[in-house]
Amino acid sequence: MKRSNFKIVKIDKNKSLFNYEKKILINELILNLKLGYYDFEKKKPQKVKFSLEIDYEDKKPSSDKDIKSIVNYGTIVKLITKLVKKKHYNFLETLAEAVFDELFKDKRIAKIMLKIEKLEILKQCSSVGIQITKKRSHDKL
């Protein structure tokens, strides 16, 4: 009789067999803020639109009873709103970097795509802005 090459493996119930790749979507968060390099931009607030895709990984499913088991989109909106009230930013890029710094404090977050648009700055355009994607590096420096 031929022997099988299969091994019987015992599964540790405390270890997960799956990794979850999750994405938070925040579309068109519109805030009034003072943003810009030029004097006229520093005098009055303008409408600025934020859209984000936030990728994060988890080794276990979300718990329906524990809000800390998820990356909470409501918390993210509050963080961005608070951030733009704290300080005047001259450039969209520096504002984006401040958003990244705040959000990457959550170690579960692996990647953020952030789009920021000024909605009222050029009459010829419905918006002008930037889109930046930043990934957490797992390489040691």
Question: Any descriptors?
Answer:
141 residues, alpha+beta, four-stranded antiparallel beta sheet, 4 strands, elongated
Strand percentage lies at 25-35%
**Low-confidence parts, pLDDT < 50 over ≥5 residues?**
none
General shape: elongated
Number of strands: 4
Instruction: Give the overall average pLDDT.
Output: 87
Tell me the span between the first and last alpha carbons.
55 Å
What Rg do the Cα atoms give?
A: 21 Å
Order of secondary-structure elements: EHEHHEE
Overall structural class, as computed from helix and strand content, comes to: alpha+beta
Name the helicity range: 10-25%
Strand order within the widest beta sheet:
1-2-3-4
SS field, number of helical segments: 3
Tell me the major beta sheet: 4 strands, antiparallel
Could you provide a short overview of the structure?
The chain is of the alpha+beta class. It has helices at 39-43, 73-86, 92-103; strands spanning 20-33, 46-58, 109-118, 128-135. The protein is elongated, with a radius of gyration of 21 Å.
